[in-house]
Fold this sequence. Notes:
The protein folds into two domains: 2-170, Flavodoxin domain (Rossmann fold); 183-244, Alpha-Beta Plaits, CATH 3.30.70.20. Helix content is 37%, strand content 22%. It is built from eight helices and eleven strands. Helix 2 links the parallel strand 3 (49-55) and strand 4 (79-87). Helix 1 packs across helix 4. The radius of gyration is 18 Å and the shape is globular. The chain binds flavin mononucleotide. The site of flavin mononucleotide (FMN) has 24 residues, from helix 1 and strand 4. The site of flavin mononucleotide has 24 residues, from helix 1 and strand 4. Keywords: Iron, Iron-sulfur, Metal-binding. Residues 187-216, 217-243 form the 4Fe-4S ferredoxin-type domain.
Amino acid sequence: MKGLIAYFSGTGNTEYVVKLVSNEFAKRNIECEIFNIENDKRIKDEYDFYVFASPIHIEVFPKFFIDWLSEKAPAVDNKRCLLLSTQASQVGYGGRQVSRLLERKGYSIVYMRSIPMPNNYYLGKFKATSEDKKLEMVSEVSNEAVAAVEGFLRDDVYIEKQSFYITELSKLVYKLYMPILNNFAKKNLTVDYDICIKCKKCEKGCPVNNIKFDDAIHFDKKCIACQRCVQKCPVNAFKYKGEHFEQLRW
Ligand SMILES: Cc1cc2nc3c(=O)[nH]c(=O)nc-3n(C[C@H](O)[C@H](O)[C@H](O)COP(=O)(O)O)c2cc1C
């Protein structure tokens, strides 16, 4: 049996969960290929099962992930799938948001769960997760990976309760926020060139090619606010609304 784990991760939380899940399968002698959806390669209907995982942005999956699911996830003939999100609050609504889409493509969702992880969006009025809470969440997440893999392999269907109304409302709010997200970097981020070492990790790491770095940084208007650029910077050179801030580190 071989599975495919396809994921998007802005700042590493979802990637961390994906690695735990892959290890749990490996402990049970089940091989998984890990596929980052930023890779342009097409994946095929050649796996026995699929795992999809993404962060939650504004209570639902980011458009970047939904677009990939719609356009590039293969159509399959009744393949079992495990659907995961990571988010700062207790519940995210991405699973409910995409379950119809996945079913239409031939996936049978066996396990659907939104896993709490530290907040990676803590600028403006949002608060960073405290260090204590972070440790608590990260230690709990190993149990989540075990529960997901064991539940999935037992074929115990587990679909987390995610409110229909909140999901629909969140989809609408996400749509309304799209222009704000797309302008997030252009409007809010600048670089402190006294600190910047011009390594261009921000440019190379951006999942949507929103950054051009020649002598200075230039942002386009297709940002998804995933915070990758900020997190990739090795010297803390980004400023938010002109002020330095503490970066999230993994
Ligand atoms: C633009 C943006 C919006 C977010 N919105 C939410 C949200 O509505 N609810 C929530 O619980 N967490 C929210 N978060 C926090 C992330 O879901 C959380 O940190 C997630 O684990 C990040 O995963 P990643 O590191 O794989 O990108 C948001 C993060 C970003 C960057």
